[in-house]
Specification:
Layout lengths: L2 H8 L4 H12 L1 H11 L4 H16 L12 E6 L5 E7 L3 E7 L13 H7 L12 E5 L2 E11 L4 E6 L4 E7 L4 E8 L7 E8 L1 E2 L14 E9 L5 E7 L6 E3 L5 E6 L8 H4 L4 E8 H9 L13 E3 L7 E7 L5 E3 L5 E5 L6 E5 L3 H5 L9 E3 L7 E6 L4 E6 L4 E6 H8 L7 E6 L4 E6 L11 E6 L15 E7 L6 E8 L6 E5 L17 H9 L9 E5 L2 E9 L2 E2 L3 E5 L3 E8 L8 E5 L4 E5 L4 E7 L4 E6 L12 E7 L1
Parallel strand pairs: 12-16, 32-35, 34-40
Antiparallel strand pairs: 1-2, 1-30, 2-3, 4-5, 5-6, 6-7, 8-9, 9-11, 10-11, 11-12, 13-14, 14-15, 15-17, 18-19, 19-20, 20-21, 22-23, 23-24, 24-25, 26-27, 27-28, 28-29, 31-32, 32-33, 35-38, 36-37, 36-39, 39-40
Helix pairs in contact: 1-2, 2-3
The structure holds (dicuprio-$l^{3}-sulfanyl)-sulfanyl-copper (RUQ) and dinuclear copper ion.
Dinuclear copper ion binds next to loops.
Length: 631
């Protein structure tokens, strides 16, 4: 295509311009279409316009007061370390789920229950990829998994209560980046990539110069137990990953096939690769004991380097980033980043590749050129793909089958539209687009820079999450939403897939250890208000019913280790209480029917007030009591 044609199609925010540009762009074949437009409108065409208008009205992003959004959005909170729940299409933030961070509103990272999940190790994180568990390629509303690149962890969020319930520190690797789930037959495994190359035994004996023992590993985690199933050693590093819709293959991009240790080295090759993992062969190798272990842990590490029967390496240009499975299950699409192309890998051809009947490049059935800096691709379930172009600040809409036809020499234009976004988009995601239920209604584009799109907030500016209506032939930008600390990725799940609890149930595993502790102390959590002394350790058990705590005062001695356990007896939805001990850095949320506990040292003599810090009643201000610390 000529530069002029590109310039015209680029300028497609205006629908009219877009129509003209497409006519130009389509050249001879489009003349027929142009003729049709010039001809008087037929009744059928009129009807379809009316239908389009109705559809347009239904696609409003405005959700009026009292109305509910159609989709739950799960947004990574980036280096804030949390996950956020958004309503789509309103783009309202509904809730924040603290995961790797510490949160003073809920007490996440402060309470004993959260510390048991989190460990005390790191209070920070860097979330990138939230993905929901699936059954037969469809969201099942059970869990959302999220990576922590900063501290090499993976967490799980329970969707019935929207709280984190497991965190795993992945051994033998550094910086978990790409994360996805097995889609079919169900999410047995969570898969994720160790991005940074490190010595296999990282015990301080390796050097900075000799990097021959440095590796990246592909990580397979049991989704139910959240323990490591196995790891696969590869050649090159690993970036993003995705799974097929047959339950057979996983694929990951590698931008540093060179195993370079600096920028120049990392981008020296024209081609890097996509690694494909054969799940059944990997499982069989683990079963047969064909693995090694490293760093003193017992996680099986398979050797999937070049030449192994567990993997295949498909060369693609150049420093590829995102990899996305089309919802029809036919293709892995690798996004070129430093190449203006995406590589379409035929999943149907992978068995032949693994049986050495074809060469790796034979699986690449098209490599359409889309624009500068392709990073991620999303799908509408109607055969179209939407690829973010980081350098062009655009989204390219293109048709997958047409791209394959064009690759085979047919005269078709696969590019449908380019839409300006603001600015520098990273991930994009369509409503349910990574599942079989891709419904082609909404596209969210997570732009890394907002620049002039919002009131200036000083040198640090928000990112810009843009909502685009993709239900018609033309993409329409309908909403700008500022967000904080780079949401890397998001998913949109239809609300019918998620059932949340209104109040906690008393047998919830979240506070089961605290319930067991109370039992040992002979305390009935739902009726007793008691202080138990155990040497220098004091356990204070109290109930809460709006607007009073079951205990209006208690006494401890200076230097005691105090554990306060609060059980919220309110049954009413949305009546959450808090517990804050003034001047102790202690605060937490206690949801209706929940128990929460916190431990601190009573290191200040005198009267210390505690109070409820979640508004619960007209007399919420009066919901407080005293701790006397005796010197
Ligand atoms: S990455 S901008 Cu962390 Cu998902 Cu692509
Ligand atoms: Cu209880 Cu506010």
């Amino acid at each position: 295509m000529s530069k002029e044609e590109l310039a015209v199609i680029n300028d497609s925010n205006d629908v009219k311009l877009e129509d003209e540009s497409r006519r130009k762009f389509f050249g001879k074949t489009a003349l027929i279409g142009a003729g049709a437009i010039a001809a008087p409108m037929s009744a059928a065409m009129f009807a379809s316009t009316a239908q389009a208008k109705r559809k347009e009205a239904a696609m409003s992003p405005v959700v009026h007061p009292g109305e509910l959004d159609e989709y739950y959005g799960f947004w990574s909170g980036g280096h804030s370390g949390e996950v956020r729940i958004m309503g789509v299409p309103s783009m309202r933030e509904l809730m924040r789920i603290p995961v790797f961070n510490i949160d003073s509103a809920t007490g996440w990272g402060i309470t004993n229950e959260s510390k048991a999940i989190k460990g005390d190790d790191y209070l920070a994180g860097d979330c990138h990829h939230p993905h929901m568990s699936m059954t037969d390629g469809r969201y099942n509303g059970k869990y959302v998994f999220i990576n922590d690149k900063a501290n090499t962890r993976v967490a799980r969020i329970r969707c019935d209560v929207m709280k984190t319930d497991k965190i795993l520190h992945v051994p033998n690797v550094q910086a978990i980046h790409g994360l996805r789930v097995q889609k079919v037959p169900y999410t047995k495994y969570v898969i994720c990539n160790g991005e940074f190359e490190i010595p296999m035994n990282n015990d301080g004996k390796a050097s900075l110069e000799d990097v021959s023992t440095y590796r990246s590993l592909f990580n397979v985690i049991d989704a139910e137990t959240m323990e490591m199933a196995f790891q696969v050693m590869v050649d090159g590093n690993l970036d993003n990953t995705d799974a097929d819709f047959d339950g057979k293959y996983f694929a990951s991009t590698s931008y540093n096939s060179e195993m370079g240790m600096n920028l120049g080295e990392m981008i020296s090759s024209e081609r890097d690769h996509v690694v494909v993992f054969d799940l059944a062969r990997c499982e069989a190798a683990v079963k047969a004991g064909k693995f090694k272990t490293y760093n003193g842990n017992d996680v099986p590490v398979l050797d999937g380097r070049k030449g192994s029967h567990l993997t295949r390496y498909i060369p693609v240009p150049k420093s590829p980033h995102g990899i996305n499975t089309s919802p029809d299950g036919k293709y892995f699409i690798a996004n070129g980043k430093l190449s203006p192309t995406v590589s379409i890998i035929s999943i149907k051809k992978l068995p032949d590749l693994f049986n050495d009947k074809i060469k790796p490049r034979d699986t690449v059935i098209a490599e359409p050129e889309l624009g500068l800096g392709p990073l991620h691709t999303a799908f509408d379930g109607r055969g179209n793909a939407y690829t973010t172009l980081f350098l062009d600040s655009q989204v390219a809409k293109w048709n997958v089958e047409d791209a394959i036809k064009a690759h085979n020499g047919e005269k078709v234009n696969y590019l449908r539209q380019k839409l300006d976004v603001h600015y520098q988009p990273g991930h994009n995601h369509t409503s349910q687009g990574e599942s079989r239920d891709a419904d082609g209604k909404w596209l969210v584009v997570l732009c890394k820079f907002s620049k002039d799109r919002f009131l200036p907030t000083g040198p640090l500016k928000p990112e810009n999450d843009q909502l685009i209506d993709i239900s018609g032939d033309v993409m329409k930008l309908v909403h700008d939403g500022p967000t904080f600390a780079e949401p890397h990725d998001c998913i949109m799940v239809h609300r019918s897939k998620i059932k949340t609890k209104k109040v906690w149930t008393r047998d919830d595993p979240m506070f089961a250890p605290t319930v067991a502790m109370a039992k040992k102390d002979g305390v009935n959590l739902t009726s007793d208000n008691k202080v138990i002394r155990d040497g220098k350790k004091v356990r204070v058990y109290m109930t809460s019913v709006a607007p009073v705590y079951g205990m209006e005062s208690f006494k401890v001695k200076l230097g005691d280790e105090v554990t306060v356990v609060v059980t919220n007896l309110d049954m009413v939805e949305d009546v959450t209480h808090g517990f804050c001990m003034t001047n102790h850095g202690v605060q937490m949320e206690i949801g209706p029917q929940a128990t929460a506990s916190v431990t601190f040292i009573a290191d200040k003599p005198g009267v210390q007030w505690y109070y409820c810090n979640w508004f619960c009643h007209a007399l919420h201000m009066e919901m407080r009591g005293r701790m006397l610390v005796e010197a």
